[in-house]
Records
---
Amino acid sequence: MGLNSLRIRLAGAAPAPVFVVCGLGGRERVVDLYAEPGLQVYSTPRHAGVLLVVGRLTRGLVAPALQAHDQMASPRLVVRWTAADGDDPGDHGDVFPNAVVAHGSAAEVAAAVAAAHRELLAGDRPPSAALLADIEPAPWQGVGPYGTGGTGMTGGVPFGRPMAARAADRDDLELDQLKLRLGPLLPSLPSGLVLDVALQGDVVQSAAVGDNPYRLYAGDPVPAAPAPGLFERACHQPVRIAELERARARHHLRWAAGLARLVGLEALGVRLTTLSARLAASEESAQAERLLTRIGRSRWVAGTFAGGDLDDAGLAGLGPVARAAGSEEDARTHDPAYRALGFEPVLGEGGDTPGRVRQRLAEAVQALRLATAAGDATTTVSGVVEGPRGRLGRGAPPPSAALVDLVAGVVEGLEWGDAVAAIASLDLDVEEAARHPQMAMP
Amino acid sequence: MAPFGAAATVVVAMLVGAVCVRGLGGLGREGSTAGGRVPFLGGWPPEAHAWSRYHARYYPMALLFLAFDMEMVFMYPWAVVFVEEGLVALVEMLMFIVILLLGVLYAWREGAFRWA
């Protein structure tokens, strides 16, 4: 008895193991979670005890979220991080009837999660029961020469799943091609991205982007439109250049934090996230500038990333991705206020993954320098603004819609690690792509 | 006494192992359902069986390593007679190593060490 209570106390003192489901409007909040010391965010539900649903669940996310829930070991718990005013009525969140509802800042939610997890371990809170039906897709039949339920070792349909089909590989061998549907909750992909890949070993033979889980269907509750960000506002009204450029640097810093996490540098990710919140202070801004410059020059970028070539064609309006490949397009060059500051776009760091990484780091440094130099200068309103992902305004589709279309082409032929890095280097926002008018309400 | 002590250690270790296997086996199974046992791919169940054969490109390098690793075995008897035989043994072993080294250089030229 004493041993058991000691075990519960020790487990409760450790960071709460969390698996995150990023719902509609949850993207930015998820980035902050990684910097919370009271939480350990895992990249698989197998290691987690708490399923943290951030933002609104959409129809496309319900089935994956239920699956992830059941894949957590018992005792488990669901926490929903909803908007500040409490529950979001009418979204699909009611699939988790016993969820704990939390709202507020990342720190407040982290505290609520840790408290709920401690109660769960101590037995004061009932664990969440399995939500999917307990039916084997194809029960063990013990037929066939190897008990595979089918005919033969390389044929048949063991456990209801066909064996991989054969196809030619890069060495002209006829070997198995494993077809997988990855995402939308796979943390190594941008949240919401569904990728149908054909793999041979870890080489991506072909890829196609699946349905966007953030799209809304007829009859779905329509969420309130998110408040326009600084870049959207800058399309219609003058804003301070210092503020705009700081927002750009913040965006790139948070992207770099995600990249650092992706390659296993979690402490660097936390540092970049923390710095991104404090760029208004000159001390932190200078620190961020030094850190980004150092990362850009380090051998880490060239040594970690490879492949992912994109040529200049078809990248119009895609900001850093286009400029890395050699395009000179930047809406800021047409703004007299920027010209007065001596603005010149950063160009041509390279059209591959390391090039795009260096491009974003260089643009973040440039943005911080512009913010320092700008003083009280304001932008000139022209209806078009250079956002952190590309051109915004004049009813143009958001850059993410075009970036999602690049994914399938860029990962083909890469090894899986390079493919993941190449997708990360594009800086997709799948939710933003779903707001594309063509995607709405089929 | 010593053999009994050893036997007792083995028996105790087996008992501990059996208890662990029984105890830990129950841990993972608690609350596990068919929906939760499928591999995690990001939210959707796998549609094809995961058993697939692919070209392991490091295979020639692994074979080469094994082959040349085994050549090292010949250096043990050689080391035993080295003091008696002196310079002759040294020259013979050098010839042996040089011939092997030519083999490594050939495999290198053929690209056996590159698999990415």
---
Amino acid sequence: MRRLLTTVAAVALLALGALVALQLTRPSLPSSPDEQAAQLAAELRCPDCQALSVAESRTAAAEAIRQEIAEQLAAGRTPDEVRDHFVARYGKWILLQPADPLIWLLPVAALLLGAAVFGWWLRSSLRGRGTADLERAVSDEERRRVRDELEALDG
Amino acid sequence: MAKQLPIAWRWVIVPVVALPLGWLLFTGLGRDPRLIPSPLVGQPLPVLSGTTLDGAPFTTASLAGRPALINVWASWCAPCVTEHPLLLDVARSHGDELLLVGLVYHDTPDAARAFRTEYGDGGWPDLTDPSDRNALELGVTGPPETFFVDAAGVVRYRHVGPLSAEVLDAQLRALGVGS
């Protein structure tokens, strides 16, 4: 009985995991043309605005681009083809998110490099201030004086 | 001292990190963030078509064989007023060597016609663009913009903002006009 319950629980967990995985991968493949159009509009920069997407802007240019996206999707073009259509006319500038994966890795690389340099600096500075320096700073003359005075206190 | 960075390394790290970073930031100072290079440069001009302000059908497919200057403008655009005399000059002195085409951007035909009446009609076709289709084909971000097209129909240069006599002269010469 117990083994059966464990099996059922494991299967249920697997199914749940598969569902979550499906749900996570779904937004990248919107099914209906309206969803595809909305996602494309959110990815494209409005040409006569400052840092607004075509989806957010109410300018005539943004309206025209939304119209063009809808028409091209209706004509059977894939979202990638529509995106490329605008990149070919406006350049990569039209994409609100950089298409080059290197751009996304740079901040992570910079953070790791910074952490490494900081850790290395921390280690070397702790060692530099370690007992070696202190021992060198106290001369034999001073040691003799400390010993003498301690003995004087005891006596 | 053995645990610290050797002196030689300090002299390497400063130039390796600071100099490229400094160079990047310094050259960035001189760049205009509004200036976006057009991917159309070096590519054939997309076919622009529609009705002119005079009501005649027009298409750039008929340009072939002559250099052309495509000027995107609007009556509400103040810099377009500034550059207009230069375009009139070009039409007057090089009208036989190249074709000027205006593209009216986000404007009503009446307002655009009033602009031509007030500031001078050079006689070139001014394409209306009610659905923005032509502007989208050119990747227009805002008027004035001017595209220099060679005799083979390839875009050679895109100028954003009002034209100056210097830019106009240099780009027309590059097209082999007025030489």
